[in-house]
Amino acid sequence: MRVAMRKPRAQQRGFTVVELLIATLVFSVVLMIVTAGIIQVTRVYYKGVTEANTQSVARSISDVVGQAIQFSPGTVTPTPAVVIPGAQSYFCVGGTVYLYYQGYELIDVGANPAKHQTSHSIVAQPFAGGCAGSGFVNGRDLMSPKMRLSKVTVKNVGSDPNTYQVEVRVVYGDDDVLSNPTGANAACASVHAGTQFCAVSDLTTVVVKRVQ
User: Fold this and answer.
1) What are phi and psi of 177, to 5 degrees?
2) According to the 3-state scheme, what is the secondary structure of 99-127?
3) Which of helix, strand or coil describes residue 180?
4) Closest C-alpha to 167, from 183, 184, 187, 181
5) Tell me: the pLDDT tens digits for 15-47?
6) pTM score, two decimals?
């Protein structure tokens, strides 16, 4: 009688613990690289948005003041030579007074002077009589929240008494991401973290008064 011999079943081999550890390590490294890439792209995106908004506000202020000088009848009262950060300063163009707190960050709610924050930054409002600083009445703020007017200068230049230079410097960011936050030369601090929450826009223009 012939007995059939069974062939041995092929050996089945799974992953070893070492192989699983190596695979997990490789996956973790890839995941970390992808996460770092996403964070960097997000940072660049928000940095671009912040810079664009800051430039837009600085240009808007420069345009408002420049057009007022060109087309408003009356006297132009230049900005003061010395400005104390956080103290109310002003300049006038025609029948409009511009009240501003230089170097202080505009916050809608909960402004804290200890953090160099204010509820008004630069406000344009009409006045009656001579040019003089006064309280905020019914003017509109020309700045956006989280921004500060680092510098504004309106002065006569050249031999023509009707030619004026308007300089505006707008800075976005809290004190902790800025260097010299209340100064006229405020700038983004030289740190990597938080750079997407800081931007500076500096504009200078020369205008000629066309209406006396």
Assistant:
1) -110, 10
2) EEECCCEECCCCCCHHHCEECCCEEEEEC
3) coil
4) 184
5) 788 888 888 898 888 989 888 888 778 788 888
6) 0.80
